[in-house]
């Protein structure tokens, strides 16, 4: 018997070509009565080369896509490219080529690499955010949102490099310095385009409830939005020169108005203090220096900074509750863009204030006592942040703190206020490689939207795309392009030269998959009805906040604009884990622990690489790459190859001597159990245990004990097909005379009778009293049950040599000996 060796490279290329030529994975908008299911993954950034993380993100959900198809859904598994963005611009500058050429080249190469996975991607629906046919709609959505006041222009604090004279994204600021020239970065107020995402803060929190998302993701969104219910309280500040009467009312936002009597100092953020300086406050030199210095620090350093810093401002505030004069400090643990940028500091009940007071020797006064009616408060070695009863708080003494909150609010005429940590989304970038913002600016009429009929505003080709001196977008250099007639007065005007943040492009890309070629609309309503909302979105937890929040905001805005029929984009969400290097460390070039998927595929074939990634651990956890592990999978697929090949030659020839039905039974049970298990495991993203079950099944089929029929092998191959699509396609051809792709087969069904537990706990009674139990096979006869029961030592004691008067047998439940 001669058998061809398993040669994955040969068969994989062949089948990929076959699938493509036969348009096997092109998903129709509807397919005779089948349920539509879009299985969405996060479209990649065309960085140039697929890494193993891409395989994890795309080749593994492909298992689910294939499974759902076999279960009878019309599954769309779309793919595209998130192709605008800074890296392209930087790479282009470095290699002296155009960002478009660089990006297109990468897309071409990565498309080839992605195809080597053998996934069911529908390439006919692929989208790329840099194509004018796509970004026309990104611009159109911006315009619609502008019309509704959801997009607007306003001053905001940005990172500014004084040397390069340019705005920097947070990621471009390294330890407070410009990543390019190492100059200390300052915060500068500049006008930017923003989306009013804060209008949706409440809905973005409340609507999480109906979503089937990981709790961690929901929590991350809630924390990011950071809703807190509090009170605005006015403080009178005296001694700020430059204010018209030297007096100044400053509001603070607090969630604990009940602690007002314990406010022993007052803190303003450097940002707010800077504003006072700008209008003429004559602060001491050291105060000015402190303000300038802290404005250069990055926000997260300020919050997580080990040691709090600050400086006394020379000013005093009046505590409105007890009229005490308290010192005003400038300290950078208070943030300029949170609340009002100033706080009442209550060191006894707020840990940050406590640490600050300790360091600068400020007084600490406890006003909420945890064990009332005892009013001697404990000596604190940290702030007491809990609730209790009020002490040292005038007429509020003895009141529960929860009640005192609102009473004290009334007492000082405070105002209830819901506060969000979330800011409006700054969407403009002073960069070349992005979607032009479709606006004009005219000396008379200010900003005007470009008419819908004139969209898309195409990105002009530019030779020099470095930012300009004043930090203006490189588009300002497109002298011809920039000139336009004002849509309102007809005078000469200029185009907006800012481009959009790439998060805008990716906030709606999934909608385009439903209708990628439409030139009249971003997607036809009837097609959207067929596909949305998305039932399952699989991606990385790094997108827990920004991307997922922005897409939800976009969807809600489009819903309110009556452009889409759904207000939540993704009903189900699962996060995949991260693949670590063989040394259990994050893969990185400098560590030299990077696994190159192309090399692994060349060595083992795509089926092995996919299946190993699926096998290495729970998908939601990820784990380290193990060279022995991938070998194990390769050996398994080789065994499958040999087993099916040999069976396909001997089937129906082999004589089985033993009683057939008896022998068949055991394998059949295992087959049906495996059908159930593999299906359920895939549904729960437990691909690893599904694969273990398939390994057990193969062992059992291959141990010579059972008569293995052609139909058994067909079931096995169908179960394996989502994991190893190429190998199973090849073997399917071998065992079927007429070839129809295995990937158009249905998922096998299991017989519930066959997977019932094989044993049960037989209850053994003597004279109606339970005396023992025994594990026995389901369906045993009364005679067998009697024999088993009477053989047990414990029962022998009761029954002795008496012969029972009566035996009551309830099959598959109990046996009772009446003596
Ligand atoms: C007085 C107080 C007493 C506070 C107390 C807390 C405990 P959440 O709940 O996270 O929203 N805060 C207000 N504005 C701030 C700013 N710009 N920078 C830093 N901290 C600021 O936090 C609300 C609390 O954060 C507010 O309540 C305020 O401190 C502080 F026993 O006011 B609290
Ligand atoms: Zn005008």
Radius of gyration: 35 Å
Query: Spans of 5+ residues with little confidence (pLDDT < 50)?
Result: 651-663
Class based on secondary structure composition and strand pairing: alpha+beta
Give the CA-CA distance, first to last residue: 67 Å
Structure annotation, total helices: 28
How much β-strand is present in the residues?
A: 15-25%
Can you give keywords for this protein?
819 residues; alpha+beta; 7-stranded mixed β-sheet; 28 helices; 33 strands; binds ligand ANZ; binds zinc ion
Task: Characterise this structure.
Strands 10, 11, 12, 13, 14, 15 and 18 form a 7-stranded mixed β-sheet that branches. Strands 2-1-26-27 form a 4-stranded parallel β-sheet, with helices on one face. The chain is an alpha+beta fold and 819 residues long. It is globular. It is built from 28 helices and 33 strands. About 2% of the residues have low confidence. The chain binds ligand ANZ and zinc ion.
């Amino acid at each position: 018997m001669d058998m061809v060796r398993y040669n994955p490279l040969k068969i994989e290329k062949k089948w990929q070509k076959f699938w493509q030529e036969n348009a096997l994975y092109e998903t129709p908008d509807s397919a005779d009565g089948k349920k539509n299911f879009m299985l969405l993954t996060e479209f990649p950034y065309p960085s140039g080369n697929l890494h193993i993380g891409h395989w994890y993100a795309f080749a593994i959900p492909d298992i689910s896509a294939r499974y759902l198809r076999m279960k009878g859904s019309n599954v769309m598994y779309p793919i595209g490219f998130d192709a605008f963005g800074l890296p392209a611009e930087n790479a282009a500058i470095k290699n002296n080529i155009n960002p478009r050429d660089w990006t297109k080249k990468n897309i071409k190469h990565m498309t080839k690499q992605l195809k080597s996975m053998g996934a069911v991607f529908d390439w006919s629906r692929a989208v790329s955010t840099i194509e004018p046919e796509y970004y026309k709609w990104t611009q159109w959505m911006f315009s619609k949102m502008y019309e509704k006041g959801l997009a607007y222009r306003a001053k905001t604090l940005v990172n500014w490099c004084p040397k390069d004279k340019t705005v920097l994204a947070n990621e471009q600021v390294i330890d407070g310095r410009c990543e390019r020239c190492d100059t200390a970065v300052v915060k500068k107020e500049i006008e930017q385009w923003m989306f009013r995402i804060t209008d949706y803060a409440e809905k973005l929190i409340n609507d999480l409830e109906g979503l089937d998302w990981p709790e961690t993701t929901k929590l991350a969104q809630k924390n990011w939005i950071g809703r807190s219910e509090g009170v605005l309280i006015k403080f009178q500040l005296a001694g700020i020169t430059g204010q018209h009467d030297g007096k100044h009312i400053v509001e603070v936002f607090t969630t604990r108005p009940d602690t007002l009597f314990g406010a022993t100092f007052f803190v303003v953020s450097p940002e707010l203090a800077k504003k006072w300086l700008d209008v003429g406050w004559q602060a001491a030199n050291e105060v000015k220096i402190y303000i300038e210095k802290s404005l250069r620090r990055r926000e997260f350093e300020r919050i997580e900074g080990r040691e709090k810093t600050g400086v006394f401002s020379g000013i005093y505030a009046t505590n409105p509750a007890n009229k005490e004069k308290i010192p005003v400090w400038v300290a950078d643990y208070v943030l300029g863009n949170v609340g009002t940028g100033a706080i009442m500091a209550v060191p006894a009940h707020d840990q940050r204030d406590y640490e600050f007071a300790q360091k600068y020797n400020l007084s600490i006064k406890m006003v909420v006592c945890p064990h009332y009616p005892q009013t001697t408060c404990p000596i604190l070695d940290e702030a007491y942040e809990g609730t209790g009863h009020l002490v040292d708080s005038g007429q509020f003494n003895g009141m529960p703190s929860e009640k005192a909150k609102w009473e004290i609010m009334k007492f000082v005429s405070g105002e209830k206020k819901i506060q969000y940590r979330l800011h409006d989304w700054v969407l403009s970038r002073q960069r070349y490689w992005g979607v032009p913002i479709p606006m004009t600016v005219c000396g008379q009429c200010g900003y005007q939207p470009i008419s819908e009929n004139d969209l898309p505003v195409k990105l002009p080709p530019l030779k020099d795309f470095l930012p300009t001196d004043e930090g203006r977008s490189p588009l300002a250099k497109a002298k011809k392009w920039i000139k336009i007639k004002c849509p309102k007065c007809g005078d000469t005007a200029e185009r907006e030269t800012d481009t959009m943040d790439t998060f805008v492009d990716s906030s709606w890309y999934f909608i385009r998959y439903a209708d990628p070629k439409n030139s009249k609309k971003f997607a036809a309503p009837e097609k959207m009805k067929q596909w949305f909302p998305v039932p399952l979105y699989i991606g990385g937890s790094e997108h827990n906040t920004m991307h997922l929040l922005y897409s939800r905001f976009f969807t809600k805005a489009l819903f309110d604009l009556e452009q889409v029929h759904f207000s939540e984009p993704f009903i189900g969400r699962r996060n995949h884990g991260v693949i670590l290097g063989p040394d259990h460390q994050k893969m990185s070039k400098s560590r030299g622990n990077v696994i190159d998927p192309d090399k692994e595929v060349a060595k083992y074939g795509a089926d092995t690489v996919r299946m190993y990634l699926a096998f290495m651990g729970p998908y939601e956890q990820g784990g380290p790459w193990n060279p022995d592990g991938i070998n194990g999978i390769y050996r398994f697929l080789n065994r499958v190859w040999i087993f099916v090949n040999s069976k396909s030659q001997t089937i129906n020839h082999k004589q089985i001597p033993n009683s057939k039905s008896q022998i068949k039974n055991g394998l059949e049970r295992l087959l049906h159990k495996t059908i159930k298990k593999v299906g359920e495991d895939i549904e729960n993203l437990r691909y690893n245990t599904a694969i273990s079950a398939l390994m057990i099944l193969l062992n059992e089929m291959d141990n010579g004990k059972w008569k293995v029929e052609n139909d058994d092998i067909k079931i096995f191959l169908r179960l394996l097909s989502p994991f190893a699509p190429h190998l199973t396609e090849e073997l399917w051809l071998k065992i079927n005379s007429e070839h129809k792709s295995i990937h158009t087969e249905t998922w096998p069904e299991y017989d519930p009778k066959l997977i019932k537990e094989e044993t049960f706990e037989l209850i053994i009674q003597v004279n109606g009293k339970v005396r023992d139990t025994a594990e026995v096979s389901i369906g045993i006869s009364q005679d067998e049950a009697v024999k088993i029961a009477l053989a047990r030592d414990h029962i022998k004691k009761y029954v002795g040599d008496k012969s029972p008067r009566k035996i009551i047998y309830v099959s598959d439940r109990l046996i009772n000996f009446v003596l």
